[in-house]
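Issue 218. Parser rejects a valid record. Input:
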Amino acid sequence: MTETDTFRCPHCSQRHPIGTLYCPINGLPIELPDAAPALPGLPEIRKLNRWWLIGGAVLAGAILCLAGIVTLSILRARVNPNITPTVLVILPSQANNTPAPNVTLVVATPQPGVTPLHEPWAACPDASYLSRLRIGDTAEVSSNPPLANRVRSQPATDAEVVGSIQPGEDALVLDGPACANGWVWWKVRSNETGLEGWTAEGDSSNYWLAPVSP
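Output the parser choked on:
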């Protein structure tokens, strides 16, 4: 056996065959320094294990980051399918004021050339439009279409008709609002005839009463 086939043992200082892991004299494990040149047939076990650990840690970190991104995307995209939309008709000036996340806004057609005295408001929860009137306002019967407003004894479509207010006629708002038949009702008194009773402000398509500037 030549010297190229052996190495000097750090424990007993004798030469042993390459690949010997334990000293045959005292039984101690043989560990050569990392800086020592590699000997033929002796695997660099410690260096190999160290690179495997580093690679495994990097791979595990990448997997955890990817899983976190996917989970966050799923949570952001989740929606509640059990929410039932509610339809609320509003004026064009109110189209950007969404009252609730599950409310669908439908823009009503106001009377041309009429500027509300107040901010339109939900006078009746079951009405298909927002009211533009308040108690004390002066309202004019719309001329578009040119139809008279029926005035009733009570705020309901089946109540007794006590008279009519003609297109272009002014009336003072005395009381209200009252909610019935999906309409907003106001108690008014005609400034021309003195007729007094309840009349509807409009329907889902048009306003029949328009506020008049003082």
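Fixed in the parser; the record now loads. The mean pLDDT is 76.
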